[in-house]
Design a protein that fits this description.
The structure holds 2 protein chains of 2 kinds. Chain A is built from 11 helices and 1 strand, in the order H-H-E-H-H-H-H-H-H-H-H-H. Chain A is mainly α. In chain A, helix 3 runs antiparallel to helix 4, helix 5 runs antiparallel to helix 7 and helix 5 runs parallel beside helix 11. The N and C termini of chain A lie far apart (44 Å). By secondary structure, chain B is mainly alpha-helical. The chains are: A mainly alpha, B mainly alpha.
Chain lengths: 317, 676
């Protein structure tokens, strides 16, 4: 009993560490690879860590028009994202906090963070913040049905919305995303991932002061440690969604339990798969141009259609 | 004991109504007496309902008046007690709120009359939920409708208010007409007016009759519930009523329709044909989606909330529709899960929508406008109201860890489980409905970012908003009660679900909730073998712990390094209220994306002197097409008027002619009687 408690504790701590430590690295790798592909040198892959460290050491300016919502938001966003991250299986097919929430809870916890981020965008009264909030809420609302359909497809396959069960059902079927239903659901979720993490062609993470921006516009008034928290949370959210995608659809290397050497192997596989997915994102970002905002619904409609096809395929094939 | 509590609640309400009317010349006394009576009656009713639901059996109470033909009997079975308990909690909070809210009307309006109708409304609602025969039910139903009409029309000097009140009255009576026919069909089949004689009766009728009665009930109760397409009175009537009445209307009066449906679908009907559940589920999805889409376009704070009532009724009916379908498909366990989801959401909606309307009432009283574009920055002037409104906004958006999340999660689980129950294509309905529920919830979140941020955050957009004053202590207390209710129903989900055991036992013969509780009551599961789980209490505890352990100390440390300055706003100096994003601008992307539905029309007139780039004045007008009024009710109204015009011909005004009509009618009736 006591031993079990200790192993659980180690599991939770490891996953927490992975979430916190790995997220900026993924952002950095994507940034560097993208620069290389565009024949730029690009920053070091560790630059996001340096940015965060620097921001945490700085002072900050709080807009005089803002209320306590502005100060509470970075914390709500940060903690709800971490909590969502602890509810997904990363290394083994066990979600450490699986009892606290299933796949739906993960999505809704991310939604809680987004809700507060959108409020804080409007809090200072600057019109850029409102613009970002409005667009963020619009796009995420339109992405939601496709995301749900994709989740439903895997949940129906596993007979449960619990992520431990979903990952458990996937173990051993290393290439299951090649099955038609899984493939459609994978594609739908991948499109949603692009929209939710603010990547080209939906949003451009590299721009500032452009009327096309979404996420950056919302957090325009943040500075210093609060900005660091929000940015860190954004990269953790990206990591959570990427992990969800690869572990649900591409379970190769996912360990049945956390025990012993297997965990190291699992971490190795996780890193390899994340790198692969990052390369795919980089390629997608480089060959595409950003869509006009009112073309984004069409992209999400495609995702919804793919999700519906996935559902139909579950009993056709 | 239950009988005594319930009866004393009724008597206190009656006394409150009478005393309030008697005191109409002393407004302060009328206000205090009517609110105190409403509060006391609600607490007694709450005690009776709670006792009734935990006793698990039905309590039959004969009221001490009546005559041999029409009996006045009240029956508190678990379903009735559940709705009556919902009423009691909401009514207690609203009564508390009304102490302060009505004070401003003292001397300007007849508070004696208000107190009379307010208590009468509560009384009639309690009787609607508990009446045990058709006659008594319809009497209570009418008293409720009429007292609601009087409360809606309370500020009747405004043209819009009168119009909304009359629209409510017409729609309500059209609905009652449908109900009357349906009840008469049932009564003639059973030979009795007693509800207990209708148990499972409807299912033994021939299919055509069964279906017709079902539709009559669905739309008859649907009018009161605000079901699309018979919802048109709701967004008109809720905003114009005083805000405490709006809270009551949206929180519980529309739930009488839900109660009626629950009573009919799960008591009078046995396992129904599949199409019935499909229709209810479909209408639920349509109501939910249209409700939230129209809400997004509103910048009248109370109208926005009214549209959200339609959305939430849709979510409740998704649960009910799924439950009906599961009954047809022979899945009583899943039917219990879906029914619990719908009923849970009913209680939740009463809490958060009541809270939001009370919050809106405080805001409207402080700023003297319902237009969000004229508010702003209220979080500084009205911190408690803002916090309560925020709790309501998070809850209604279905975000963890509050109550809206729990009932929406249960609805998802029920819908997901439905996929495996049948091999036909009908199974696709469940996940598609689930994904549209996700769209609805996400749009609701977008809408409540707007509904909270525009009135409460940033700079005040008008002088009234800048000078707003916090609501009085009793108003704050009323809101706090409901905010606490939202939190308790969210965090205590695994404990609250026990309440549903007697209800599902009665309706479906199943006690499902022991399967819903996992891990010693800390996690909620859908009751299937290896379903996913959520633990709202766990989520909340962890978030609070993280906040206390890390956020608080770090925030205090960082505070020393932070300075307050003007908003950066990309370097533009001098931020004013005119720079702020408006509610209209916030929903602009969605207005464009769903323009096929809204058919927006806008008009911009700019005046300029020198160059078109420097206009001296701009007038902007923007409206969306009210689709149902224009395309459904418009033509219907024209038909009715045309028919009335044609009938004018037989009314020539001559008394001889009318006598002839009477004579002919008499002869026809005699012939009919002889033949019959």
């Amino acid at each position: 009993m006591k031993e079990q408690m200790i192993t659980r504790l180690i599991e939770n701590a490891t996953q927490l560490f992975l979430l916190l430590a790995l997220a900026p690295l993924v952002t950095g790798v994507i940034r560097t690879l993208k620069a290389r592909l565009q024949t730029r040198r690009g920053p070091s892959i560790f630059q996001p860590y340096r940015d965060l460290l620097k921001l945490f050491r700085k002072g900050m300016v709080i807009p005089e028009t803002a209320s306590w919502i502005f100060a509470a938001t970075p914390w709500v966003v940060f903690f709800s994202t971490i909590l969502a991250g602890l509810m997904i299986p990363m290394v083994a097919a066990v979600a450490p906090f699986g009892l606290l929430g299933d796949a739906l809870a993960v999505i809704y916890l991310l939604g809680l963070g987004r809700f507060f981020l959108a409020l804080s965008g409007l809090d200072s009264g600057s019109s850029f913040g409102g613009l970002g909030s409005s667009r963020e809420m619009t796009i995420s609302a339109l992405a939601e049905p496709a995301m749900m359909l994709a989740i439903f497809t895997v949940a129906i396959g596993a007979g449960s919305t619990g992520l431990t069960q979903i990952a458990g059902a996937a173990i051993g079927q290393n290439w299951r995303f090649l099955a038609p239903a899984q493939m459609f659901a994978f594609a739908a979720l991948a499109l949603v991932l692009v929209a939710e993490t603010g990547r080209i062609p939906v949003d451009n993470p590299d721009t500032h002061l452009e009327l096309t921006m979404i996420h950056e516009a919302m957090i325009l008034e943040y500075s210093g440690p609060y900005l660091a928290l929000v940015e860190w949370a954004a990269s953790i959210k990206q990591l959570v969604l990427m992990t969800l995608l690869i572990n649900c659809f591409w379970p190769i290397g996912l360990q049945p339990t956390w025990f012993g050497f297997g965990a190291l192997q699992g971490i190795g596989w996780l890193l390899a798969k994340l790198l692969f997915l990052s390369c795919a994102i980089v390629l997608l970002e480089t060959v595409n141009a950003k869509l006009r905002l009112f073309r984004v619904p069409e992209l999400l409609a495609v995702a919804f259609t793919l999700g519906s096809l996935a559902l139909v395929s579950t009993f056709l094939f | 004991m239950i009988a005594e509590l319930f009866l004393s609640g009724i008597i206190v309400w009656l006394a409150g109504a009478g005393a309030s009317l008697a005191l109409w010349r002393q407004p302060a006394a009328a206000r205090r007496v009517s609110c105190a009576a409403a509060l006391a009656g609600s607490l007694l009713d709450l005690a009776a309902s709670a006792a009734a639901i935990f006793s698990g059996s039905s309590t039959v109470i004969g009221l001490p008046f009546g005559n041999p033909v029409f009996t006045w009997v009240v029956r508190l079975d678990p379903l009735s007690a559940y709705f009556s308990g919902t009423l009691a909690v909401l009514a207690a909070a609203v009564s508390l709120y009304s102490f302060g809210y009505l004070r401003e009307m003292e001397g300007r309006r007849n508070l004696g009359a208000f107190g009379f109708f307010f208590n009468l409304q509560l009384l009639s609602l309690a009787l609607v939920f508990t009446a045990s025969n058709v006659f008594f039910f319809l009497v209570a139903w009418e008293v409720m409708a009429l007292s609601a009409f009087c409360l809606i029309s309370f500020e009747h000097e405004k043209e819009k208010t009168r119009h909304a009140g009359v629209l409510f009255l017409i729609m309500s009576h059209a609905g009652t007409g449908l109900l009357l026919i349906a009840f008469l069909v049932l009564a003639s089949a059973s030979g009795s007016l007693d509800f207990s004689s209708f148990h499972l009766l409807a299912s033994s009728m021939p299919p055509l009759q069964q279906g017709a009665v079902f539709l009559l009930f669905l739309f008859g109760f649907g009018v009161k519930a605000g079901l699309v397409p018979v919802h048109i009175w709701l967004p008109e009537a809720h905003p114009v009523a005083p805000s405490n009445v709006s809270a009551l209307m949206s929180g519980i009066v529309i739930k009488t329709g839900i109660y009626g449906m629950a009573r009919v679908f799960f008591d009078f009907y046995g396992p129904p044909p599949l199409w019935m559940g499909t229709v209810v589920l479909g209408l639920g999805v349509v109501s939910a989606l249209l409700g939230v889409l129209y809400a997004l376009m509103e910048h009248d704070l109370k109208r926005l909330l009214a549209w959200h009532s339609i959305e939430n009724i849709g979510i409740i009916l998704m649960g009910f529709g799924a439950a009906l379908m599961f009954r047809s498909l022979g899945q009583p366990n899943l039917a219990a899960l879906a029914l619990i989801a719908g009923l849970y959401h009913t209680f939740n909606h009463a809490m958060f929508k009541g809270l939001l309307f009370l919050g809106a009432g405080s805001v409207v009283q402080a700023t003297h406008t319902r237009n969000m574009e004229k508010m702003g920055g209220l979080i500084r002037r009205m911190p408690v109201t803002a916090l309560c409104f925020l709790v309501g906004a998070v809850a209604i958006s279905g975000l963890p860890p509050l109550n809206g999340f729990v009932s929406e999660w249960l609805t998802y689980q029920a819908l997901l489980a439905g996929f495996g129950t049948t091999q036909s294509l009908t199974r696709l309905m469940f996940p598609i409905a689930g994904s549209l529920l996700a769209l609805t919830a996400a749009l609701a979140a977008a809408c409540f970012v707007k509904a909270f941020a525009i009135p409460f955050l940033a700079l005040p957009r008008s002088e009234e908003a800048a000078d707003a004053r916090e609501a009085s202590p009793s108003m704050r207390a009323g809101m706090a009660v409901l905010a606490a209710g939202c939190a308790a129903l969210g965090l205590g989900a695994t404990w609250f679900v026990r309440v549903f055991d007697p209800i599902t036992q009665q309706a479906l013969g199943i006690r499902a909730t022991s399967a819903l509780m996992m891990a010693r009551g800390w996690a909620l599961s859908p009751g299937t073998a290896h379903g996913g789980t959520i633990s709202t209490a766990g989520i909340a505890l962890l978030l609070l712990f993280a906040g206390a352990a890390f956020a608080l100390p770090l925030a205090l440390r960082w505070r020393r390094r932070s300075v307050t300055g003007p908003a950066w706003d990309c370097g533009q100096p001098g931020l004013t209220a005119d720079n702020e994003y408006t509610a209209t601008a916030f929903s602009k992307p969605l207005r464009m994306i769903f323009s096929a539905l809204y058919r927006p029309r806008r008009e911009i007139q700019a005046e300029y002197e020198v160059s078109p780039y420097y206009p001296s004045a701009i007038r902007f007008e923007n409206e969306i097409e009210p689709t149902f009024e224009k395309r459904l009710y418009g033509p219907l109204w024209e038909r009715i008027m045309a028919a009335a015009n044609r009938m004018k011909g037989i009314q020539a005004g001559s008394i001889n002619l009318y006598l002839a009509y009477i004579f002919i009618t008499l002869i026809l009736l005699l012939l009919f009687g002889v033949r019959g």
